[in-house]
Design a protein that fits this description.
Largest sheet: 2 strands, antiparallel
CATH superfamily: Sodium/glucose cotransporter
Distance between the termini: 74 Å
Strand order of the largest sheet: 1-2
Oligomer: single chain
Number of helices: 20
Length: about 500
Amino acid sequence: MAELQPLSFAIFVLITLATIGISIYAARRVRTAGHYYVAGGGVRWVVNGFAIAGDYLSAASFLGITGLVAFSGYDGFIYAIGFLAGWIVALFLVAEPLRAIGKYTFADALTSKFKSKKIRLVAAISTLVISVFYLIPQMVGSGAIVGPLIGLDYEIGVVVIGALVILIVATAGMVSTTWVQFIKGFLLLIAALALTIGVLVVAGMWPIGFLEQFLSGTVNIPTSSGVTQVPGEVFMSPGMKYTNPLDFVSLAMGLILGTAALPHILIRYFTVPKPADARKSTVIAIVVMGIFYLLTLYLGLGANFFGTLDPSDANLAAPMLAMHIGGEAFYAIISSIAFATILGTVAGLIMASAGAIAHDIYTEVLGRKTDEKRALRISKATAISVGVIAIVLGILAKGQNVAFLVGLAFAIAASANLPALLCTLFWKRTTEWGIVTGIVVGLISSIALIVVSPAMMSEGALFSLFNPGIVSIPLGFAVTMGVSLLTSDRVKSEATEKTAG
């Protein structure tokens, strides 16, 4: 068990009490399913922009990317580039038209055109699978942070985070989730900026000079068996982690295209009053995240420069760097903000999962029509169940790098959800069966390739790439469009027969 640090524990308690207070206060504003799922559609675009950033800047962004940059240099920073670049797709193609047709969930947007239970079912299943893949790294990050922060073992840390998130979503749903994410977005940006300034001050260098000394020198990379030295030019160039160029292409495709298809991000567009507000929210989020991701480069390099790395857990690079720069006080602040980061993201993921089960499957697919009070009870019970599952999965995935795991979730989202979403929004020849088969094939192919990849099978991998995006994303689009073309004539024929009849 980690040693209890009084200051860290005090700040942790403060954030916990503030979170509980927000949840209790917000619960008084929740009267309908609309309030629970999308905060009644009344969130202001500025608030929503920071909330999107707070939702998206997860444990993978703060803990995972910092660790990947520290150990892999350029290859680690490619995650930050991909995470940010994906928002260009969301800004120009998805944000405004999605808000115009959506209601509560990703499935609502797809079924606005087809009114199909089959589409709603596969979209709900896809939402659940992607959310679970995304939940796992968040819970891994929670155990890595909360354990050392308050003197608890990893497993107990995961349980603590899970219990708090369940409280957030089971009391006020998207209302409390929005405000937790909004505050977290501010705090995370301030924390990253403060830590970056600390790195440069202690190193005694300007930003450009700090980068140049990595290029011109030798970089030490700690391993379980000692320290490996690599030339700075190698460390700051592609090829440290991904020696196969196709790995880069596949990862980039998954990160860039997956952003605009993540269910827990998409539902944030339903919380603003107008489609134009969705676009303006995205612009705010891009600015906040652009600054943050640039700072993660300095955090990762700073962790390597000062040697604050644990080869057994790369996720601890940022907190250990904070301890080196500013002692226990700074460590406590940075770790507590990382804790708040995980709270906000997990809350959003559980909201997306609860909507898929309670709204899409229970109410719409199974046809269990209920009054508002019963609908709220079912939604909250679902959220609690998903939270418990997240705790179990987080404990089982101990030690995995959170940014790498999130990259897999992005690839699944880009393969299954994005073809269906873009075709629904922009292609008139899209059919019901095209959407259904596209989601199913994209989902199954991406997961199957992950299972037989080096990420899961190590030396005996049947698929040579770590990320499936380069195969499963084009396949998802090809199947969606191909089946739509094959079935479009039949759909027209059936429509003509109904009109004649």
